[in-house]
Design a protein that fits this description.
This is Multifunctional methyltransferase subunit TRM112-like protein. By secondary structure, this protein is an alpha+beta fold. The protein is 31% helix and 20% strand.
Length: 127
């Protein structure tokens, strides 16, 4: 599961969950799958992702795989190639292969296996 995917997932479909975001990421294993840097894509995604949630997810990955994590979005982020490259790698190159996603409100756990998050809920868990 890419960290870009994680940034858009929510457990708001569960009963008694108002927001369900961001899901807490617990990483058992992760890998880095390099891809060609695309600054335009990164700039577009930075207007859509929740940057603090991305940083928290990256910190969870760093417990099993060393990665560079920018702690804040610089004022010149659109022209800062180093920052854009770091964010691109976080969004597109980090692949969580095993772990868990945890609902921040109910503590419901969703497993990640072979890079695929299982967000299926039981019938009695949804409205």
């Amino acid at each position: 599961m890419k960290l870009l995917t994680h940034n858009f997932l929510s457990s708001a479909f569960l009963k008694n969950v108002k927001i369900g975001y961001p899901l807490t990421l617990k990483v058992t294993s992760a890998e880095i799958v390099e891809s060609e840097f695309d600054p335009d894509f990164t700039k577009r995604m930075l207007t859509k992702v929740e940057f603090p949630a991305l940083v928290d997810a990256a910190k969870a990955v760093a417990t099993v795989k060393p990665i560079e994590i920018p702690t804040e979005k610089p004022a010149d982020w659109e022209q800062n190639e180093t920052f854009l490259n770091q964010v691109y790698r976080l969004l597109n190159c980090v692949d969580v292969t095993a772990g868990e996603l945890v609902c921040p409100e109910t503590r419901r756990v969703f497993s990640i296996r072979d890079g695929i998050p299982n967000m299926l809920a039981n019938e009695d868990e949804v409205d």
